């Protein structure tokens, strides 16, 4: 269902820019995550993908993956996690370590102009123990990773 919808909407590859770090908890506050905050970007591809996922979840009467808000707009990359809420001292130590490494409030790659940016060319959807790969912009659907094998639908094929 998700693969069909992504193909139908024709989500194209897109860049994601990261604009800082923050601590967030899961819904039931049993884990806290240090995350890179991702900016939505001009093409708004991330909200399109989130909407597609949440619609698929609602068909199966499941709660949404993430709802935008809370300063994250729902988009982030987890770097570290903890079973307990990080103390002020822990947060300060991490901020100081990032400052010392030269990252400060803007996450950058050394010797690169501007903030950290990555190109999203595919998404992976895990259902049970099977990971489906959806190549963006190709309309390719149905690729799977099952165990150690990987296959791709679209312009190229590869295996692990």
From TrEMBL:
GO biological process: U6 snRNA 3'-end processing
Domain of life according to the entry: Eukaryota
Any one annotated GO CC term: nucleus
Keyword line: Hydrolase, Lyase, Nuclease, Nucleus
A GO MF label: 3'-5'-RNA exonuclease activity
Matching Gene3D superfamilies: Cyclic phosphodiesterase (3.90.1140.10)
This protein's name: U6 snRNA phosphodiesterase 1
Native source organism of the sequence: Pyronema omphalodes (strain CBS 100304)
């Amino acid at each position: 269902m998700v693969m069909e919808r992504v193909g139908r909407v024709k989500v194209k590859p897109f860049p994601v820019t990261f604009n800082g770090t923050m601590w967030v908890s899961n819904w039931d506050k049993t884990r806290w995550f240090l995350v890179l905050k991702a900016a939505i970007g001009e093409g708004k591809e991330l909200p399109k993908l989130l909407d597609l996922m949440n619609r698929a979840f609602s068909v199966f009467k499941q709660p949404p993956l993430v709802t935008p808000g809370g300063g994250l707009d729902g988009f982030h990359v987890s770097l570290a996690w903890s079973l307990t809420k990080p103390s002020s001292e822990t947060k300060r130590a991490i901020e100081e370590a990032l400052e010392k490494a030269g990252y400060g409030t803007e996450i950058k790659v050394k010797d690169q102009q501007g903030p950290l940016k990555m190109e999203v060319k595919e998404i992976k959807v895990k259902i049970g123990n099977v990971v489906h790969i959806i190549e963006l912009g190709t309309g390719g659907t149905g690729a799977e990773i099952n165990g150690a094998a990987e296959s791709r639908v679209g312009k190229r094929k590869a295996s692990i």
